[in-house]
Amino acid sequence: MTTPSPADFAGQHITVAGLGVSGISAARALAGLGAHVTVVDGGDSEKQQAAARELEAEGITVRLGDGATLPAGTGLVVTSPGWKPDSPLFAAAAEAGVDVVGDVEIAWRLRGPDAAAWLGVTGTNGKTTTVRMLASILAAEGLHTTAVGNIGTPIIDVVLGQGKDGERPYDVLAVELSSYQLHWAPSLRAHSAVVLNLAPDHLDWHGSMQAYAADKGRIYEGNTVACVYNVADKATEDLVREADVEEGCRAIGFTLGTPGPSQLGVVEGILVDRAFVENRQQQAQELAEVSDIAPGSGTPAPHNIANALAAAALARAFGVRPAAVRDGLRAFHPEAHRIQHIADLEGVTYIDDSKATNTHAAEASLAAYEHIVWIAGGLAKGATFDELVQKSAARLRGVVLIGADRALIREALARHAPDVPVVDLDRTDTGAMPEAVREATRLAEPGDTVLLAPACASMDMFVNYNKRGEAFADAVGELTARDH
Predict the structure, then answer these.
(1) DSSP bridge pairs for 173
(2) pTM here?
(3) d(Cα 460, Cα 462) in Å, to the nearest integer?
(4) DSSP letter string over 223-276?
(5) Using the 8-state DSSP alphabet, how is residue 71 labeled?
(6) Is residue 434 helix, strand or coil?
(7) Distance CA 388, CA 395 (A)
(8) Which of 20 and 419 is assigned the larger pLDDT?
(9) Residue 174 and residue 143: Cα distance in Å, rounded?
(10) Which helix (H) or strand (E) holds 230?
């Protein structure tokens, strides 16, 4: 198969589905390559109209409020990640024999002969933390790198910007990939990749857990050096077994326990490599101490230790030295709203994990603390909460519920933790957060943790999980101002 070049897009009639960040990026990039680009979107908000005007000034056609119609003459559809596979636009494309791909696929096709290697990261939870840890480790090795993809930096912009204006080309890219992006990237073949974990999420988009897992597993297809999997999550290892990889590509596990051969793990507070050593049956290489993971932020939660091991495995697969793993982890600082320490007040610790937007993420967050007053609720996205409550019940001092689907959590608590006090705030406005924090403080005792880990999406009350976390931090700040 001949690798496409930028010139291959010149003169093509390409339809871009979606006027979000990735859609705008793809439209501009393809227009810059000489393609005739039309952007379609079902929305017609003031923000979208403003974006449309900007693109139209650059010679790009935009059709708002018309996301279901395939423009005449379209030879390729490039979709934004959120558009569902059963969208009428894609049905029309299939009937017309027109391929549908995502911006990641376009970026992969445009890499060029001396392109940077891609180290891929996916999973239900932990992607952004892991990919940023990985980029920090690669940079500590002296490699020119950046974290791209689902993390917010459109990968197509990075690929087309390679070496421009005298900038040093990238040696390697740390690429975060969502299940949506992988679904639309059939040609992607990473150097090495990891599926961190698998739990039900976005099933309304994929249609089934099997389809969701299959899209995650695409990240392993064609890997050349290492397929990294989670020893504690058999489903990730199963995806490795099913993948069609290059000859010589190895399966590398990571575990919070003592590692076996071809694994990375933890021994007496030390991150240890038994995969990328000469004699993995008898040798082990010390990489870093657990305390090197985000130093200064307290003892790392177990899932962040797992993220660090996954990042270390990908870096070692790329030939990074042990010292760079240590230095990169020391230099890494977690983003806001991910197990973020907000304050300690009268013996109670306040933690913002607003990024825990599904049950799997919330379970990991709840497992990190011994006695918890849990603030939860929002949009459930079709999730159920029985298993989460069962596993976490012994840790709960109390629960404060907010958001549209809080009744689902309340019912699970009644079934599996009937003795835990529950405050059900019957409101979905942003002003509910200060009341939730006050109620949580009332339930908490010295030594407890008030934990915002909603297990739900935020859009019923807040623009995004960032705003929800900021509201929590502000509410804790009001306690500080009032009490001090």
Answers:
(1) 118, 146
(2) 0.77
(3) 6
(4) -SSEEEEETT-HHHHHHHHH----TT-EEEEE-SS---TTEEEEETTEEEESSS
(5) P
(6) helix
(7) 12
(8) 419
(9) 11
(10) strand 226-230
